[in-house]
Design a protein that fits this description.
Length: 521
């Protein structure tokens, strides 16, 4: 019996694990096609089937493999979003694709003018989505779309929730009831900006007192600013409310978020953004963010000041890109001014990483930015000057190298001339030695001949002596002539050899000497 209870306990524990896994079952694409390809023939019938129609108006993909893979990733995100939204009970939500090249007629019918954008058709409104194309972010945004454009604050607990919202523009009004014409005008204005701007209303005098609101009065709250601005001219028409919001929809400090990424980035001032990076969950980042809020509140009346706060934790995939592009370290807070066209930037120099700049120091730096004393375009001018200096240095180096080469060539020429002179002198000396050797050999031969002649004189008659003397003279003359001819030939050969190869002269001269000796013998 005890073993039966043990077995039952084990089975129940497995059941608990299974329930826990199912409760955290993150959706995965099941492979079913739910996204529609909209064209001129089917777009009306498809859009009528849904309460909310999400349309991705994309560029024509073409033959590029990279573009095809990118589009496949986007289409997969849309398929997963459609799969998740299919389970909603309140609204039927459909998703469709429109190719900017193949389906121009459909885009024209629906008044779509911006490619690679997502449009949400809900009731009588067309809402443009300017955020990341991910299933998570898109579904979250669609949840906001299908909510009521105005949220009613009925008690103090809901009022605390209202005060906790500080990252978005928000409006709150006090009206007699939901049937009030002034509330209806407020509600109509809300539909124009929903869900980008938060609208709240109360019919409770107690809540209105806490908000310091009078009947039919509307307060406008900037992000991160505690004190609101009372919209003048109550009671308001829809048009008056819309105009006021449009004139004040660029806050002094606003947060870049995944769902408004492109909307905020495109809303620059004279082509530039003041950007502050700070992690809210980091002590240094939190401290720096509080300083930013103080600066924003002190300068909320300045229409030319708008600071974009980016929490790196919200965009982990972009952190390496930002660090490389802006040449900054995002492990700590940073603030700088960025040119939106070429991403040139200048960042505030924080000398002490442990101590954040004071609000006064930050205001001074921002004032320099607004006055143009801190300008990312100046970096371009400095780079151009550096390039010019580098070119000048290169030219100088080339000139110096040319001069050195000329000097080296002159030295080489002088050395060659000296070598030639030395070689010529050596050749002359060799020739003189050859002549002296030849003369000595001739003299020795003459002496030997004379001795032989003397011996013959003793043995023979005087006539024979005369004949021998004549013969010796003739022989001597012949020998002298041969020696002179050989010397002339040797001189000519030596001159020719000097022109061809200086190193071979000595060998040729030695060979000539040997030949002369052989001839003389």
């Amino acid at each position: 019996m005890k073993w039966a209870w043990v077995l039952l306990g084990i089975l129940l524990s497995f059941g608990q694990l299974t329930w826990a896994q199912k409760g955290m079952d993150i959706p995965e694409y099941d492979g079913k096609d739910r996204v529609h390809d909209l064209n001129i023939k089917n777009y009306k019938s498809v859009m009528k089937k849904y309460d909310v129609m999400v349309v991705y108006y994309h560029e024509h993909v073409g033959n590029s493999k990279a573009a095809q893979k990118q589009f496949q990733m986007e289409e997969l995100a849309l398929e997963l979003a459609a799969q998740v939204l299919e389970d909603l009970d309140d609204e039927d939500i459909g998703i469709g694709l429109i190719d900017e090249k193949k389906d121009k007629a459909v885009a024209k019918k629906l008044d779509l003018d911006e490619e690679d954008s997502i449009y949400i058709f809900y009731e009588d409104e067309v809402i443009e989505y300017d955020g990341e194309l991910t299933a998570h972010t898109l579904v979250e945004f669609i949840y906001d779309v299908i909510e009521d454009p105005v949220e009613i604050i009925e008690n103090q607990h809901e009022l605390k929730g209202f005060h906790n919202i500080e990252e978005d523009i928000k409006l709150v009004g006090f009206f007699k009831s939901a049937k009030s014409e002034h509330y209806n005008a407020f509600e109509d204005a809300a539909e124009e900006f929903h869900p980008h701007i938060k609208f709240f209303a109360t019919f409770s005098p107690k809540v209105a007192k806490s908000l310091d609101l009078k009947m039919n009065e509307v307060d406008f709250y900037e992000p991160f600013i505690e004190e609101p601005v009372v919209i003048p001219g109550k009671p308001y028409s829809e048009k008056e409310l819309v105009e006021f919001i449009e004139d004040n929809d660029r806050p002094t400090l606003r947060k870049l978020q995944p769902h408004n990424l492109y909307e905020i980035w495109d809303d620059d001032i004279d082509g530039e953004h003041i950007i502050a990076f700070a992690e809210e969950g980091d002590p240094d980042g939190f401290e720096f963010l509080e300083i930013l809020k103080e600066v924003a509140e002190d300068n909320t009346d300045n229409p030319n000041l708008s600071i974009i706060w980016i929490d790196p934790d919200d965009f982990p995939l972009l952190v390496p890109y930002w660090e490389k592009t802006f040449d900054i370290d995002l492990s700590g807070p940073q603030i700088g001014v960025v040119d939106v066209d070429d991403a040139d930037s200048v960042w505030m120099d924080m000398d002490d990483e442990e101590d954040m700049p004071t609000a006064s120091e930050l205001e001074d730096w921002i004032e320099d930015v607004l006055e143009g004393d801190v300008d990312p375009d100046e970096d371009d001018d400095d780079d151009d000057d550096d390039d010019d200096d580098d070119d000048d240095d290169d030219d100088d180096d080339d000139d110096d190298e040319d001069d050195d080469d000329d000097d080296d060539d002159d030295d080489d020429d002088d050395d060659d001339d000296d070598d030639d002179d030395d070689d010529d002198d050596d050749d002359d000396d060799d020739d003189d030695d050859d002549d002296d050797d030849d003369d000595d050999d001739d003299d020795d031969d003459d002496d030997d001949d004379d001795d032989d002649d003397d011996d013959d004189d003793d043995d023979d008659d005087d006539d024979d002596d005369d004949d021998d003397d004549d013969d010796d003279d003739d022989d001597d003359d012949d020998d002298d002539d041969d020696d002179d001819d050989d010397d002339d030939d040797d001189d000519d050969d030596d001159d020719d050899d000097d022109d061809d190869d200086d190193d071979d002269d000595d060998d040729d001269d030695d060979d000539d000497d040997d030949d002369d000796d052989d001839d003389d013998d």
